[in-house]
Design brief:
alpha/beta; nine-stranded mixed sheet; 12 helices; 30% helix; globular; binds pyridoxal-5'-phosphate; binds iron/sulfur cluster
Length: 348
């Protein structure tokens, strides 16, 4: 595995080259550790890899420091002993989304935004993922199946934004993804299309010419939300990708998850915001971890999160400060975490 040449982004033919990269992202823990020149790893566990496969694309892998068992990028993808522990409060379905699933592949939880499960897998498998236990097979969709979701959007005029999520929507072929985007684009009352993806930062080859041109041709304003947790994930290799997207007037945002041992300090998060800005991406959300089984070792307490956030706020201009939030089942939106005035305080 992992004997790759470097190829320029411009020379990719539709789908074939990024798919080749994608196929190389599956590996075993021992292959990973060998590549990273780590004889063994005190936290690694091959049984955890059976619960949730190890996948890491080359562009991300290259940013992990060789020989460092505590590298913050490594800890996001390494199958660990602690995933096998049962921890109270951490469950397979922490967000209980069942009530908000009117048709297959579509979640309508918030008033005017619907979310499409536009893919069943990802290029990178993040160990803290709240969808690591998601029954994706129940949501696998053909064009015919998508018609019900499109009809639902068409007949719900209060919906003005469609969010492509997953899994990673960009793992679909250009043909399927662009078809679905174009179908949504045709719906008159949709004012924004949003794509959530971790692929542009972990497998940048994905933005081939055909995909870029397809995105550029949409009439509805497009927002892309990258999922990046640590400044080391961002390098100059990504600049052409984001320059290109910006040239098409696509709004670029990033959301992160606050993860113990990965990014739970103000200096790291401040650097992340600054590096995102350099690439033309603005911070959007900083989420507390969703309590999914196998992820408890990443948890940062609410109290610690607030302390860290106050420090972060003192280091950043307001526009580079992500919104510290948490997803609480049954709430009509993400829940913003208040670190400042409470209702019963007075200003003067
Ligand atoms: C997070 C989420 C959204 C989007 O929320 P925003 O605050 O608009 O980013 C929409 N639908 C579902 C089901 C979600 O989980
Ligand atoms: S990219 Fe997102 S959905 Fe995919 S494994 Fe990572 S956190 Fe989960």
């Amino acid at each position: 595995m992992i004997q790759l040449s470097t190829t320029s982004v411009e020379t990719y033919t539709p789908d074939s080259d990024w798919k080749m990269r994608l196929s190389q992202s599956k590996m075993t823990t021992s292959e990973l550790l060998r590549y990273l020149e780590l004889d063994k790893h005190p936290l690694a566990n091959t049984d955890a890899e059976k619960l949730f496969e190890l996948r890491v694309p080359k562009a991300y892998l290259d940013k992990i420091k060789k020989g460092d068992p505590l590298d913050p990028l490594l800890l996001q993808i390494l199958p660990q002993n602690k995933e096998l522990l049962k921890v109270e409060g951490f469950t397979d379905n922490p967000l209980d989304e069942g009530d908000y699933n009117p048709v297959r592949g579509l979640f309508h939880k918030y008033k005017n935004r619907v979310l499409l499960i536009a893919s069943s897998t990802c290029a990178i498998n993040c160990r803290y993922c709240f969808r690591r236990t998601f029954p994706y097979d129940e949501h696998r969709q053909s064009r015919l199946d998508w018609q019900a979701a499109l009809d639902y959007i068409q007949s719900n005029k209060e919906v003005d934004e469609v969010i492509f999520s997953g899994g990673d929507p960009l793992i679909q072929t250009n043909q399927s993804l662009l078809w679905l985007l174009q179908e949504v684009d045709k719906i008159k009352h949709i004012a924004r299309i949003r794509i959530h993806t971790r692929m542009l930062t972990s497998l940048p080859e994905r933005l081939d010419d055909q995909l870029f041109e397809g995105l550029n041709a949409l009439n509805t304003p497009l927002v892309i939300v990258t999922h990046c947790n640590h400044p080391n994930e961002l390098g100059n290799d990504l600049r052409p990708i984001f320059d290109r997207l910006r040239s098409a007037n696509i709004t670029l945002l990033n959301q992160s998850v606050l993860l113990k041992q990965v990014n739970n300090n103000a200096a790291t998060l401040s650097e992340l915001s600054k590096k995102l800005f350099q690439l033309g991406i603005l911070p959007y959300y900083l989420f507390l971890l969703d309590p999914v089984s196998g992820s408890a070792h990443f948890e940062v307490s609410l109290v610690d999160a607030k302390t860290l956030y106050r420090k972060l706020q003192s280091e950043l201009p307001g526009y580079l400060l992500p919104r510290l939030s948490v997803e609480i089942a049954g709430m009509p939106s993400k829940t913003l975490i208040n670190i400042q005035l409470s209702d019963n305080e007075t200003i003067l």
